[in-house]
Amino acid sequence: MARTAPRYSFHDLRPDPGNFLDDVIAGFSRLQKELPPKYFYDERGSALFEAICELPEYYPTRTETAIMRLRSKEIAVRLGPGCALIEFGSGNSRKTRILIGELAPVAYIPIDIAAAQVKASSAELARTFPDLAVIAVCADYSQPFALPELNGVHARRRVVYFPGSTIGNFTIPEATAFLKNAGAIAGARGGLLIGADLKKDAARLNAAYNDSQGVTAQFNLNLLARINRELGADFDLGAFRHRAFYNPGAGRIEMHLVSERDQQVGIRGHVFRFRSGETIHTENSYKYSVAEFQELARGAGLSPEGYWTDPDQLFAVHYLTAEARDGRPAPGRP
Ligand code: AVI
Q1: Would the CB of 68 count as within 6 Å of ligand 1?
Q2: Over residues 301-323, mean pLDDT
Q3: Among 329, 11, 61, which residue's Cα sits nearest to residue 188?
Q4: In terms of Cα–Cα distance, which of 299, 43, 293, 320 is closest to 165?
Q5: H or E stretch including 217?
Q6: Whose CA is nearest to atom 1 of ligand 1?
Q7: Angle formed at CA 238 by CA 47 and CA 50, multiple of 5 degrees
Q8: Would you say 146 and 21 are in contact if contact means Cβ atoms under 8 Å apart?
Q9: What percent of the chain has pLDDT above 90?
Q10: Could you give the angle at which helices 215-231 and 20-28 cross, rounded to 10 degrees?
Q11: Residue (of 33, 11, 42) closest to 228 by Cα position
Q12: Are 72 and 96 in contact (CB under 8 A)?
């Protein structure tokens, strides 16, 4: 039998790419110097992150994949037939393929700010699932946006999938705003399936972000290399070191780059001074107990409906809906 041609389309909503230089200058002008973690992911940073996901100490990726492998049948039943599956992120993960294989959605809609990435990974996915309508969208999912017309797609409900515990890299207000936005995209009868790393003993967390091969250190230091490459700065990479630790009060891993000596760095006519021991805060990775995550979801007007976890309780995949339990729309929903 002849194969159906891939039902594939690409929509560019032209998101604001942001301004690297402005963000670096603003971040270095603060009392606690900081850099937005979104800048980790240039070509080298993305490759280093892929390598992190394979490290023996970095359990989240393989644990979430194992949960999807074991539980995707159950998850698919819970989500129900006739879903349009909207993924926030470019969707190049094994987890997505497992879910699509089991759920058989009527359409798959990956959304990412990186046009080239979402195009490439969704086109590849469309080849694996030739009968699936794949509607790739370039948009910034951290901001409110309208989905393009899903012409010819008759979905019973929309489900937003956000795997990878990327929600942990948002501050609590950002995570709340993100969930509200995702709930609005899913719509009145919609659902959200979100991967979030669980709280656990500090030793395990600290090992995951201080791997013995130093890949996470390279990932962190690549931020400075990127500033050198793209903004012509003169960071001495040997004069900064990686530091990551679990902050139990805040419930998060913090990543920093520590200045090893008093030094100054020039970036496009601006000069920034770093004292010996001073840090640049580069990332937070929040860890949520099930109760904390469900509280966060309720704060965004969503209803926690259940979750799936692994035998060691390392990671959770949460299912949320925009419906209140009594069937009325949740507060703030149409
Ligand atoms: C992408 N994100 C969920 C990773 C995390 O674990 O917070 C990023 C990362 N940073 C260091 N290692 C991995």
Answers
A1: no
A2: 96
A3: 329
A4: 293
A5: helix 215-231
A6: 166
A7: 10
A8: no
A9: 87
A10: 110
A11: 42
A12: no
Strands 107-112, 133-138: pairing is: parallel
Q: What is the pLDDT of residues 212-222, one digit of tens each?
A: 999 999 999 99
- Unique residue bearing structure tokens 């679990």: 246
Q: Is the CB of 61 under 6 A from ligand 1?
A: no
Which value, to the nearest 10 degrees, does the dihedral of the CA atoms of residues 120, 123, 125, 127 take? -140
Task: Judge if the beta carbon of residue 283 lies within 6 A of ligand 1.
Answer: yes
DSSP per-residue letters across 69-116: HHHHHHHHHHH-SSEEEEEEB---SHHHHHHHHHH--SEEEEEES-HH
Half-sphere exposure of 24 (CA within 13 A, CB side): 24
Q: In sequence order, which residues have a C-beta less than 8 Å from that of residue 44 and are 6 or more positions away?
A: 222, 225, 226
Residue type, 155: A
Question: Hey, which bits of 163-278 come out as E strands?
Answer: 191-197, 240-247, 252-259, 263-267, 270-274
Q: Which residues sit opposite 57 in a β-bridge?
A: none
Residue given tokens 């959605």 in the structure block? 105
| Pairwise CA distance, residues 155 & 158, whole Å | 7
Can you read off the two tokens belonging to residue 45? 């940073």
Q: Return all residues near 273 (Cβ < 8 A) that are at least 6 apart.
A: 262, 263, 264
334 burial class (0-12, 13-18, 19+ CB within 10 angstroms)? exposed
Report whether residue 167 contacts ligand 1, using a CB cutoff of 6 Å. Answer: no
CA of 298 to the centre of ligand 1 (A): 25
Contact 102, 76 (CB under 8 A): yes
Strand duo 279-286 + 133-138: pairing: unpaired
CB-based contact 202:246 (threshold 8 Å): yes
Query: In angstroms, what is the span from residue 267 Cα to ligand 1's centroid?
Result: 27
Phi-psi region for residue 258, left (φ > 0), alpha (ψ -120 to 50) or beta?
beta
| Angle, CA 207 vertex, CA 204 and CA 209 arms, to 5° | 115
Please give the pLDDT value at position 290.
Answer: 98
* Tokens representing residue 318 in the block: 């949460």
pLDDT, tens digit (0-9, with 9 covering 90-100), for 105-138: 999 999 999 999 999 999 999 999 999 999 999 9
